[in-house]
Amino acid sequence: MSETRAASTPLSPVALHQGLDRIWSTPKGWGRLSAVNHTVIGRRFIIAAFIFFAIGGLLAMLIRAQLATPHSGFVGPALYNQIFTMHGTVMMFLFAIPMFEGVAMYFLPKMLGARDLAFPRLSALGFWCYVFGGSILIVALLTGYAPDSGWFMYTPLSSGKHSPGINADVWLLGITFVEISAMGAAIELTVSILKLRAPGMSLARMPLFAWYILVTAGMMLVGFPPLILGSILLELERAFDLPFFDPARGGDPLLWQHLFWLFGHPEVYIIFLPAAGVISTILPVLVGRPILGYSWIVVAVTAMGFLSFGLWVHHMFTVGIPHLAQGFFSAASVLVAVPTGIQIFLWIGTMMAGRPKLTVPMLYLLGFFFVFVCGGLTGVMLAIVPFDWQVHDTQFVVAHMHYVLVGGFIFPMLAAAYYWLPHFTGRQPLYNVGTLAFWLIFIGFNATFLIMHLTGLYGMPRRYYTYEAGYGWGALNLVSSIGGFVMTMGFALFAVDMLFQFRLGRIAPRNPWRAGTLEWATATPPPSYAFASLPDVTSRDPLHERPDLGQELAAGGGYLAEPRNGWQETLVVSMNSATPQSIAILPRPTFLPLATAAAIGLFVLSLLFKLYWAAAFLPIAVLALCLAWTPASGAKADLGPVPAGRGLGLPVHFEVERPLSWWAMVFLLLANGTIFASLVFGTLFLWLVAPNWPPPGGLDLSQGRLLLIGSLVVVAALAARLAQRPLGQTGRPSLPLLVGTLAAEALAAGLTLATLFDVPTPTGHATFATVCALLAYVALHAVLGVVFAGFAIWRVMAGYVSARRSADLGIGSLWHDYTAVSGLLALLLVAALPFLLPLRGSVG
Ligand code: HEM
Ligand SMILES: [Cu+2]
User: pTM of this prediction?
Assistant: First the structure.
């Protein structure tokens, strides 16, 4: 090991590593449950996702066993419904999304040259929410209470009347629980990519993988909220009979479809983009040539992110929507093939310019090209409305979907597994089992799903548990099923290969593929702190320029090469040019995420079993636990600049105006704003097209009171801003104004709740139900506004706030601003409804 830079630091490399390890390592024994480290949590996500993949695969085998022959008595219709619903649900929510979250969590900090993600405790919370939510679903499956109305949960099939019992509630609550983890991950990844890069890693030098994850995380922030809202509304309908989706009482089942597909279509890209990011990362390395058209790829990925939100209606061509809308969404769907095509051509170009060798990851990439392009072509076919009318809800769609999902996600992930395994384990495969596994999977896959296109064209519907002999479907289905089992053998062989490598693989050299990205500059397997000192970056492929960078950093030649105060430190940089700005001190291992997830889990279970007294109390416990997170992220005295190494002095993150948590709040509010926008969309949608409007009687709320509430939330936001004014001079904010904020929010919350009780029979008509939802939204935000204001007052009194340490107030202010704006809009809509109702009457 070279010692070139070690002379400049006082510590010997060994002492440096021991010191860092003491600070960063996760405790042993039960202490493992307190882990927050991204390497540990990322690995756990990946392993858990593999387990769920095996469960989903098992369910797929049951489906194929049932459909192998006509008139099969293997499973009956009731169980079959649960099996295919759970297969789709598990694969989409419990395998694909967590898998890419795990991969991103594990690799991103290392690729960016950071020591961890921005909010380690949030990653841990997300992991536990995922495991608990997933377990609820699996336990339900084992006990026969699994959801059975299809993974789309279409109303009215999933409404109380047609799905009595708790099966649908399991889906709605369990999935919403898992979504918490996805939203957390989205915020975590966005802020980490934007703020935790190595000095010099400007946006233009960022690894492509980070670009893909940035776009994906952004899509999650605006793509998941419609589903979260939809699930809440449907659960409210099922639990309290609020008729959002009931056409007899002014609701509309189509509202569910819109909310679902507003999420569901982008979801497909949320799954595909990270996999594409993997391809853009490993393909150039495997063929030994830099990627063609870096900036084109960034543009294409961003374009896909935006376009994919304009396509959701192509899942609804047969529900009876206006022709013009069909034409628009058909064209938009075809258009999205353009950015996808750009990427494919750039990948193929890169491959042709390089020297591809048929290694195992390369085989999987070739498999990806074949399968995914076929899936894309059938996708364009489906985007053509008359064709879609023909094959809608047949096996053709199932075949298309699997070509896209398996081709676009599984194949790249398998390539990634072989490519990065040396990073996880420090070892390389010994035998060439991987090639055999690939061919079994590839041949088995095509035998299963290529055939299914035909079965579909011959008219076999999806989601039917059995079929008659004599339609010509029998032989095709048998081949499909045999293909499925061949593929399963391939996956089993893959699993065996992976397990063997952990123990029996050859020891791998440090950077076995000669890649240029920074994750290969850590030791393998990586230590808890990833880098002993942090690099600076001058190009897109730092390791190509400086192959010895890894050793240099290990010897302490980079930034922050000094363990001190027990701090887990990493650098925070400016968003665009990546100039160092501050030092983030990240939280140490703690059981709080586990406890918080458990409290949320109990809340979910209490809703599931209709124990509403507990459901009223548990949110308070969750809130209290969340507040218990905060003391670790502050200090009671100003520190001033701290040495960051290489002659640089930087403030610690709680002494800057906009720390990482401020950015987290911005993105949280973006997601929250999308929930709100979806609610407004839902209200206007029902008003415009739902049957049985206007409601009987009128909506007679006191306009004066609505105006008062609106003024109160604005006053609260203004007072919170003004309270920070004196900070600059006296170092203390104005306490009376902070108390004023609290009072205004409390009054607003109280008045809104009182207004809720004035709404006439919310169960009578969807108008009243949506008004209740809007008012509840305002009340909830005002209540949390009280919490934020109270928290600010406590932080000031306890001495956490000074002119330098003012971030708590800034973050609270963001919340009050948001409450004011969303509150005003919601109240305006509520106040306008009495005037809108007659308009609808004259139009309809
Ligand atoms: C690994 C091999 C797989 C096999 C053999 C398989 C098989 C099947 C089959 C036969 C169905 C049709 C159920 C029916 O119509 O009754 C189905 C549905 C579905 N699969 Fe898979 N699947 C596999 C992997 C995946 C993966 C990786 C994903 C997603 C990442 C996925 C997502 C879905 C979804 C969402 C449905 C629901 C379709 C519907 O509701 O009609 N599958 N799968
Ligand atoms: Cu779509």
Answer: 0.95
